[in-house]
Amino acid sequence: MDVSADIAVIGGGIVGLAAAREILARRPGARLVILEKEAAPGQHQTGHNSGVIHSGIYYAPGSLKAKLCVAGATDLVRYCDEKGIPYRMIGKVIIARNDEELPRLEELHRRGVANGVQGLEMVGPERLREIEPHAVGARALFSPNTGIVDFTAVARAYAGDVRAGGGEIHTGAQVTAVRQRDGRTVLVTTAGDVEAATVIACAGVYADRVAALTRAPRSPRIVPFRGDYWVLRPQRRHLVNTLIYPVPDPSFPFLGVHFTPRMDGACWLGPNAVLAFSREGYRLRDINRRDLQEAVTFRGFQRLARKYWKTGLAEMWRGVSKRAFLRSLQDYIPEVRAADMLPGPAGVRAQALGDDGALVDDFIVHRSGGMLHVRNAPSPAATSSLAIGRLIADEVEQG
């Protein structure tokens, strides 16, 4: 494969596909190619996420995450209606276990209202029992406009749009080098060279490595965090009606263990959050020496680990102890028992981390080395994908 194109997109995950379909809609007849290193698009974060259509509660007002999540969720639901992709707006409750967590719950309510999230309701124990009869808590924030969808099906539809618009998706094409030639960019891949006037990198867990090929700044780095799930035994699925989430713990930069009904009827329990020993490490035994060495020798990760070492150890213990995991679940649904927990899947979150040890809290899209880079797009990127696609297309049009 030696290709000359107008636009090349590195990465066939949901963000790369969304960007490609938007660009083709604006530039009919342009030759666009997507380069995906796997045998099919959407094999990593897209295919291993929890399937939640987020409403936009958690994110700082004015941030890209806040704006693009709220807009993207509306767009996504409309898109699913147009394409006949099943989804369910089952709602979400974020539960404060005690009075100590109430100020943080109220702050989430404030953020959600500021971000334009519709229908938010602060509820007490009685209303919580109406929504979730088996859940307990001091108070809860109810978001009726949070839903679930199969993002693999969404990505498949995006890929169909790309092909219908004349775009090409080349699989088995891992980018290994980037060169400049006569004002155009040459991407050296495992399947041949691709030359393009415009290149967009949506490389997910490999975003920093692709950026490094263009001599872009090394920071922020991607540090992979694995999240392990259990699955609720089918006979006990009646215990959960909506998405049930904890109030985020300020001592740990992830959302915590929650209950996630799925489109196939299953209910996932989790995840925890631990360092993945491989950027594609969906199992504890998956170890990539380069990935692990890069993570543990990165001073940003070392600073993060020093700051959160107690919580990190607890997360690791919860990853190997079913009983510890169960205790976290019983904080919200006391009726859950160890026999109700069946082994489940895992995902890897591509989280950007700065040299100072701070997790990058917003999407990052910037130009460097003659390319447009998406450097950080973890959750809620799938929910936001159509809006992110518009943002990227805007950047391409601005040159």
Structural class: alpha+beta
Q: Roughly what is the average pLDDT, rounded to an integer?
A: 95
CATH class of the largest domain: Alpha Beta
* Oligomeric status: single chain
Please work out how many helical segments DSSP would assign.
11
Protein described:
- This protein has 399 residues and is an alpha+beta fold.
- It has two domains: 3-46 and 152-220 and 361-398, FAD/NAD(P)-binding domain, CATH 3.50.50.60; 222-354, D-Amino Acid Oxidase, Chain A, domain 2 (2-Layer Sandwich), CATH 3.30.9.
- Helix content is 32%, strand content 28%.
- Strand 19 (364-368) and strand 20 (371-376) form a beta hairpin.
- 47% of the residues are buried.
Give the topology, please:
Blueprint (H helix, E strand, L loop, with lengths): L2 E8 L3 H13 L5 E5 L15 E2 L10 H20 L3 E2 L3 E5 L5 H13 L6 E3 L1 H7 L7 E5 L3 E3 L1 H14 L3 E4 L3 E7 L2 E6 L2 E10 L5 H7 L7 E12 L10 E4 L11 E4 L5 E4 L3 E2 L13 H9 L1 H9 L1 H12 L1 H9 L10 E13 L10 E5 L2 E6 L8 H14 L1
Parallel strand pairs: 1-2, 1-12, 2-9, 5-14, 12-20
Antiparallel strand pairs: 3-8, 4-8, 5-7, 6-7, 10-11, 11-12, 13-16, 13-17, 13-18, 15-16, 19-20
Helix pairs in contact: 1-5, 1-11, 2-11, 9-10
